[in-house]
Write a structure and sequence with these properties.
With about 475 residues, this protein is an alpha+beta fold. Helices cover about 25% and strands about 35% of the residues.
Length: about 475
């Protein structure tokens, strides 16, 4: 007994630590479980609060009947005349969708495609009250619309959440009107973010495996706090039903659009005034970037905000208004979301270093929408063997022969050597090289000098700004250098 007491006394600290250790591990497990946001036993309590905020939307429109053959037309005219009726030249067509209340006074958000070309819009509330709705405004590019109903009492409204904080794997709940079955609730997780499904110029969809079907369009996607983080808009489905691939417009994009529609009934978007293309791995190497990111400026609009701020062809826009630009499509969304007239900081990559500029954004107009686009070397003949090209200085005769616009300057490609590096980029005779590694070139010797310098500096790739006859627009390409 005494021996045990002595041992215990000598190791009192160790024993206390051994007793506390399991408690410490248990605390870590609880913290980890809480951070993982395990699924609740039931969504019922949350859904009870959310259901009244979601509405069913039905629309009707007049569709003109197609004209058939003269024989059928005569037959139907006689048929209706015998019955004392007039043949109908049009019919009424109905469609269904979903929406959600964003203001107790009766403002409701839905998809543009749900109400497009509708003559009448009706909204059915969760208590089966049906109200006529008026269209406040809609935006086809983001597929968003705002409706207004008149009501004598405040309506239960949703609240917006921040979709930027949503993580892949988070639980979400979708409520809507699939196939006319109003008040349908489904649950799933966020499968992916920032999906581009070629639906529009500002695609940034949240993908989910929560069941979304026809009629869910315009309905809300909620997080477990009961906040709207997305507007269900599209599905991928060869069968027409849900296969677990649905897409929602993120709240980060929607809130600005909805606020503008409410304030003015239309949407103003910022305009930078550049034509951009993706930075591929090859272009990143040629531009001396550490990785493929940002938006490469292919051309700058004359007199636009970018030109005024000093942005030039060949710049890579890597930061906009304090946010990094991962891909070129991200820049289009960032600019569009920024208020017109705001001064924003833009960071560009130019000739191997960062340059910070200040840009005052203009307003995007339809006609201003820019397309998004992806040792001895020379001989007396103007051949640059490292590129696999034969080149010539542009003369009036060559300009006429190749039908070059008077505004195009550079070095003319007269032949592309089969199997060469340039041939892999589908360059053609008649294309014109304007710049190499951001520097202007105007004669074959300029091209040879730039390629030679790149090889001497140990670079394997050069970037070229090329006016392609087939495309009609300048485009940056990266061409690997022959090792010979």
């Amino acid at each position: 007994m005494n021996q045990v007491t002595i041992v215990f006394g000598r190791n009192a600290q160790v024993v206390r630590w051994l007793i506390a250790f399991p408690l410490f591990i248990a605390a870590l497990a609880l913290a980890s479980a809480a951070h993982a946001r395990a699924a609740p036993d039931s969504f019922a309590d949350l859904v009870d609060k959310l259901l009244p905020t979601v509405v069913n939307i039905s629309t009707t429109q007049t569709v003109e009947q197609g004209r058939g053959s003269e024989e059928f037309e005569e037959f139907f005219r006689e048929f209706f005349e015998r019955r004392g009726e007039q043949p109908q030249r049009s019919r009424r067509q109905s469609s269904l969708g979903s929406g959600f209340i964003v203001d107790p006074s009766g403002y409701i958000v839905t998809n543009h495609h749900v109400i497009a070309e509708a003559d009448e819009i009706s909204v059915r509330l969760a208590d089966d009250t049906t109200l006529e709705a008026t269209l406040v405004g809609s935006d086809e590019k983001t597929d968003l619309a705002l409706l207004k109903v008149e009501t004598s009492k405040p309506l239960p409204a949703t609240r917006w959440g921040n979709s930027e904080k949503t993580r892949i794997g988070d639980w979400v709940i979708a409520i809507g009107n699939p196939f006319g079955l109003g008040g349908t609730v489904t649950a799933g997780i966020v499968s992916a973010r920032q999906r581009d499904i070629n639906a529009g110029p500002y695609d940034d969809f949240i993908q989910t495996d929560a069941a979304i079907n026809r009629g869910n369009s315009g309905g809300p996607m909620f997080n477990l706090k009961g906040e709207v983080i997305g507007i269900n808009s599209a599905i991928y489905s060869p069968s027409g039903g849900s296969i677990g691939i649905g897409f929602a417009i993120p709240s980060a994009l929607a809130t600005n659009i909805i606020d503008q529609l409410r304030d003015s009934g239309s949407v103003q978007r910022g305009w930078l005034g550049v034509r951009i293309q993706n930075v591929t791995d090859e272009l990143a190497e040629g531009l001396r970037l550490d990785s493929a990111h940002g938006a490469l400026v292919a051309s700058v609009s004359k007199g636009g905000p970018a030109e005024t701020a000093g942005i030039v062809q060949g710049d890579v826009i890597i930061e906009f208004n304090g946010r990094k630009v991962p891909k070129y499509r991200n820049l289009s969304r960032m600019v569009a979301e920024t208020p017109v007239g705001r001064n924003v900081d833009v960071v560009v990559w130019r000739k191997g270093k960062k340059v910070k500029l200040k840009v005052n954004l203009g307003e995007l107009e339809e006609e201003k929408v820019a397309a998004l686009t992806d040792s001895p070397i020379k001989s007396e003949s103007g051949e640059v063997t490292a590129l696999g090209l034969k080149l010539a200085t542009i003369t009036p005769e060559l300009r006429q022969r190749f039908e070059l616009d008077d505004t195009i300057d550079g070095v003319l490609i007269t032949d592309v050597l089969p199997g060469g590096n340039a041939a892999e980029k589908d360059l053609k005779p008649g294309d014109v090289i304007d710049r190499i590694d951001l520097d202007e070139v105007r004669k074959p010797g300029d091209v040879a000098d730039k390629v030679g310098k790149a090889k001497d500096d140990g670079h394997r790739v050069v970037t070229m700004l090329v006016h392609r006859q087939a495309k009609g627009e300048p485009e940056w390409i990266a061409v690997r250098l022959d090792n010979s």
